[in-house]
């Protein structure tokens, strides 16, 4: 099992496929309007055809420039932490 993948069961995902799917989705998204929650945390939705498929916590000029930091299987699909350099700057939801 690779060190960037977390799971509560024995199912393992193919790291290269997760990275490929993430890059493909990031190449199609656009940034939505940012908002700040009551705790002061900034959120910038990542949109694909007006559907929210992720969010940024830090403004990133070009979503295509981000990479996969870690990922795991959640209840509604694969959750991907997005990084720029060594900093996690957002999250993406793969189905």
Strand content: over 45%
Cα shape: globular
* Overall pLDDT metric: 88
Terminus-to-terminus distance: 21 Å
Structural class: mainly beta
Helix content: 10-25%
Element string (H = helix, E = strand):
EHEEEEEEE
Please summarize the sheet with the most strands. 8 strands, mixed
Give unreliable regions as ranges. none
Gyration radius over CA: 13 Å
Using DSSP, what is the number of strands?
8
Number of helices: 1
Describe the protein's architecture and organization.
The protein is mainly beta and 95 residues long. The protein is 13% helix and 45% strand. The protein has one helix at 15-26; strands spanning 5-6, 30-31, 35-36, 42-48, 51-56, 67-74, 77-84, 87-94. Strands 1, 2, 3, 4, 5, 6, 7 and 8 form an 8-stranded mixed β-sheet that branches. The radius of gyration is 13 Å and the shape is globular.
Short description:
The chain is mainly β and 95 residues long. It is built from one helix and eight strands; from the N terminus they run E-H-E-E-E-E-E-E-E. Strands 1, 2, 3, 4, 5, 6, 7 and 8 form an eight-stranded mixed sheet that branches.
């Amino acid at each position: 099992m690779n060190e960037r993948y977390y799971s509560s069961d024995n199912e393992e995902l193919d790291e290269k496929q997760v990275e490929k799917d993430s890059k493909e989705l990031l190449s199609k998204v656009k940034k939505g309007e940012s908002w700040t929650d009551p705790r002061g945390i900034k959120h910038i939705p990542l949109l694909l055809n007006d559907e929210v498929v992720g969010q940024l916590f830090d403004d990133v000029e070009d979503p295509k420039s981000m990479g996969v930091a870690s990922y795991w299987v959640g209840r509604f699909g694969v959750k991907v932490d997005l990084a720029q350099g060594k900093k996690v700057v957002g999250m993406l939801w793969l189905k």
